[in-house]
Amino acid sequence: MQQRWDFNEERQSDLKTLIQDLVLLESPSGDADRIHQVMERLVEDGATVPNIEIAWQEHEGQPILELHRGQGGALILGHADTVWPVGTLESMPWREENAEDGLRIYGPGILDMKAGLAMGLFALRQLSEDTPFDFLVTPDEEVGSEASRSIIESRAREAAVVLVLESGMPGGALKTARSGVGDFVGEIVGVESHAGLDPDKGASAIHEAAQQILWLTTLANHVLGTTVNVGTITGGTRTNVVAGQATLGIDVRVQTAGEMERINSTLAHPPVFDKHTRVQYIGGFNRPPMESNPASHRWFDRARQIWRHDTGEELLGLRVGGASDGNFTAAYAPTLDGLGAVGNGAHARHEHIEWQFVGPRLMLIAELLRAAGRSGR
Ligand SMILES: [Zn+2]
């Protein structure tokens, strides 16, 4: 095993400064100028990495940053947007706290994922000058990655492995499988009539919706992990009118591509219980499920060995319900997600990172980058 990088006090303080600068540059999704500033701050540090090439792109008015060197190797994936609006810092400032288990740092977007971005950059500094990598920083992960999806997928096709800088689970566990999330709207059209005088001339969209809801719940599959939730329902105008219209809002989560296809094709041809109504489901899966496979297992095993060597602890790989850009890449390359900072409270007001994990995480990312650089593709 080669000489480990010394994460000494000076480097720790440099990294903390970079993380702090990134957090203080508030960058909600959609604010292209501020997201650009975050990326520029990364470039300022990244420019010192030997032989690095810096490429900017713009998709749908949003900046995308790519820092790369050579051919092949790993794709490192990070996003510069956060869920926090500008001004959040006033009530949720950068704050360092010495807790029982070590230093914790609080701030909007620090865990998801300003610290992860900074760690990705510092991992590059540990590499020898001939180790290739591709570090892609996107602007819109928190809002579904419409602007960046095509470039994410095209870079994943070229990558030996994809390392996603989303936060780790408590204790440092990686995210090795993620649900696919589907957002559907059921639109039901009936025939209005007077509820008292002409009930038979009408066809109630609401009564049909009730039957549809019962049918929808039968699409869940507990064994395969498919869930269906009708989360909203609207419709009708008055109690004495047979409802002409009803709408259902539905959240579907799947663990496999097969289940995603089953749901898509089933919702494309729903049963209609009252033939005088019309029913259609629109929408679909924003991100496919991230499934583990033999190739991603091999990379996870490698990560486990590195983690055990460096920390003496067992690294877990967990299935999580939320989606990330790892959902896009898993179809094209083995993907390890949750490699970024470890802490708690993503998207919540107690969002923070635990500093004790930063060093081991940096070593883990760098070691995986080295392995990917050797494996080519
Ligand atoms: Zn994130």
UniProtKB/TrEMBL annotation:
<feature type="domain" description="Peptidase M20 dimerisation">
    <location>
        <begin position="177"/>
        <end position="267"/>
    </location>
</feature>
<dbReference type="GO" id="GO:0046872">
    <property type="term" value="F:metal ion binding"/>
</dbReference>
<dbReference type="InterPro" id="IPR011650">
    <property type="entry name" value="Peptidase_M20_dimer"/>
</dbReference>
<dbReference type="InterPro" id="IPR036264">
    <property type="entry name" value="Bact_exopeptidase_dim_dom"/>
</dbReference>
<dbReference type="InterPro" id="IPR017150">
    <property type="entry name" value="Pept_M20_glutamate_carboxypep"/>
</dbReference>
<dbReference type="Pfam" id="PF01546">
    <property type="entry name" value="Peptidase_M20"/>
</dbReference>
<feature type="active site">
    <location>
        <position position="81"/>
    </location>
</feature>
<dbReference type="Pfam" id="PF07687">
    <property type="entry name" value="M20_dimer"/>
</dbReference>
<dbReference type="GO" id="GO:0016787">
    <property type="term" value="F:hydrolase activity"/>
</dbReference>
<keyword id="KW-0378">Hydrolase</keyword>
<dbReference type="InterPro" id="IPR050072">
    <property type="entry name" value="Peptidase_M20A"/>
</dbReference>
<feature type="active site" description="Proton acceptor">
    <location>
        <position position="141"/>
    </location>
</feature>
<dbReference type="InterPro" id="IPR002933">
    <property type="entry name" value="Peptidase_M20"/>
</dbReference>
<keyword id="KW-0479">Metal-binding</keyword>
<protein>
    <recommendedName>
        <fullName>Peptidase M20 dimerisation domain-containing protein</fullName>
    </recommendedName>
</protein>
